[in-house]
Each structure stands twice: as C-alpha cells, then as structure tokens.
Design brief:
Blueprint lengths: L20 H61 L6 H8 L8 E7 L4 H12 L5 E4 L1 H6 L1 H9 L3 E4 L6 H4 L3 H19 L8 E2 L11 H13 L3 E2 L4 E2 L10 H12 L4 E7 L5 H16 L3 E3 L7
Parallel strand pairs: 1-2, 1-7, 1-8, 2-3, 4-5, 6-7
Helix pairs in contact: 3-10, 5-7, 7-8, 9-10
C-alpha cells in the first residue's frame, strides 16, 4: 500500500505557479509612487501653507510698518507744529497784535521759571488755557524740567534774555543778541529740541523808554535782521508795581488796563516772589472769560 507524500516538493512546482517578479516590481513601484506622490502632496501642501503664513506675516509686518510710519509722521507733524517758524505773516501778526475785531487775550509770564511756575502750569491745565512764557536763560538752566513741561503741554516758550541784568544786557546791541542766543541755547537743551527758536523776544523793562532807549532801538534792528521780533504788553495785573500785592489789587489793575481793548497782551510774572499772581490767576482767567475774551497764545501768531 502506497502512502501519499503530502510534503511540498519545490522542484515539482509548475513555472506558472512561480511568483511573477515583473508583477511584484510593478506593484511595488506603484506603491512607492503612491507614497512619493503622498509625500509630494504633503510637502506641497505644507509649503503652500507656510507660504500663506509667510505672506500673512509679511502683510502684518507691512501693516505694522505703515502704522509706525503714520505714527512717526504724526509725531513729526506735532514736532514741527511746536517749532516756531517766523514768516512774513507772523511779522504782520505781531505788528497787529493789539488790533482785533474780536476780543482776545494773551496771558504772558516773565522772569521764570521758578517754583511758582509749576503751580501756574497746574492752573492753566485745569482751565485748558495756553499761555506764553518769556523765560530767563539763567533760570531755565536751574529748572529745565519746568521748561520741558511748558513745551510738552503746548505753551509758547519765548525769550527774555539770559541774565536780566540791565547793565550787562544793554552794554551794546550785540550784547542783547548774545543774551537772546544764550537763553535760546538753554531752552533747546532743556526741551531736547536743537531746532527750537522762539523768534520772539521781550526786552527786560520793555522796548520803549528808559536810560537804555538808544541801545534798545539799535538792538531791535539787529534782532530783526536775525529773524527775531519783539513784543511788549498793553495790559497788566500790576504784580511788579508794588510790594504790597493782593488778589484784589491784581484784578483791579487787570480791569483798568484791559478796559475798552479788544486785543490784550497781559504782563504777569512767574518769578519766585510772585505767589500772589498764582493765587490771582484763576480769578484772572475767569474775569477775562466773563468779559468775553478768548484766551490765546503765540503759537497762533508765530505759526
């Protein structure tokens, strides 16, 4: 009896049953191609996604740059607006400072800054009023922070010379110009603006009269040749007229000197001994407004 051999004899396999290598290669190739295509699609998709992210980032950067440029342009515009420029219109405005069809008042303070200046700035800020400060260079060097505050808060910083010593200032016309320049240099240093020039000077003691009248006249011509104009006042609070000051006295002198005038440039002082002017200032502002005056500063004159 024969026993069947169930074991597979590899040598007896028909060649047709053998593995088709070409078919296997083809299938493997297809699989590899599919994998490559999948990787390519993934890579392209990732690349497109990253490109979109890059473009979005680039757009954000450009937008931020434009915003920065706008902000810088705004700051530059604000800076230029606070740097006085003397034009022919400005000269005409100064010449006609005491003429106006409407009532206007310019608050001006001489001889500062001092400890009283900070209080005056607080009052002006509370009343939303801009003033003009004719500063002394020697005091600017002592209190540059107050000058910077004046500037930052939109007040006009004008020039009253450096020393306020008449014998020194009025020793010659050139000495007057030198006092102006020294004061202007101190202001530039205090506010951090090397281009600043107020173009506006107030002669200590006023331009007209006094023992130095001839020197003042000559100096005024020299200043004008250097694009510097002067302005005095046509109204005051009398805070330099007596040592016995009171709020009532200052208000009385204000009413007396502004009577029947449409355009007034009011002389006051913010020197150390003028604390009464600080006390009177809220009532001075209130009185002027009640009398129909619009409060101005010299940025509206020298633009």
């Amino acid at each position: 009896m024969k026993h069947e051999n169930n074991e597979l004899d590899i040598y007896k396999i028909n060649t047709k049953d053998k593995i088709d290598k070409k078919k296997v290669f083809f299938i493997v190739s297809i699989i590899i191609c599919v994998i490559c295509i999948a990787f390519a699609i993934f890579f392209v998709s990732k690349t497109v996604s990253r490109y979109k992210e890059y473009k979005e980032y680039e757009e954000q950067l450009e937008k931020a740059k434009q915003e920065d440029n706008k902000e810088q342009a705004k700051l530059d515009k604000e800076k230029q607006a606070k740097l006085p420029k003397l034009t022919e219109e400005g000269r005409q405005n100064i010449e006609n400072i005491y003429k106006s069809d409407t009532k206007r008042a310019f608050l001006t303070f001489d001889d500062g800054p001092s400890e009283n200046t900070a209080k005056i700035l607080d009052i002006l800020n509370q009343n939303k009023v801009k003033a003009t400060f004719f500063v002394l260079g020697c005091n600017v060097e002592k209190r540059p922070d107050l000058v910077k505050r004046m500037y930052d808060e939109g007040h006009y910083i004008a020039n009253h010379g450096y020393s306020h010593k008449y014998s020194k200032i009025y020793s010659s016309k050139e000495a007057v110009l030198d006092e102006y320049n020294r004061c202007n240099d101190a202001v530039k240093q205090a506010i951090g603006e090397p281009e600043y020039n107020s173009h506006l000077f107030r002669f200590p003691g006023g331009l007209v009269g006094g023992p130095y009248a001839d020197i003042k006249s000559q100096a005024n011509d020299l200043l004008s040749q250097n694009d510097i104009i002067h302005v005095d006042w046509n109204a005051l609070t009398g805070d330099s007229e007596t040592n016995d000051l009171s709020v009532d006295f200052e208000l009385k002198r204000l009413n007396e000197t502004t009577q029947n005038k449409n355009s007034v440039v009011i002389l006051m002082h913010d020197s150390p001994n003028k604390s009464v002017t600080v006390d009177a200032l809220p009532k001075i502002i209130e009185t002027l407004k009640n009398n129909g005056y619009e409060l101005k500063n010299f940025y509206e004159i020298i633009k």
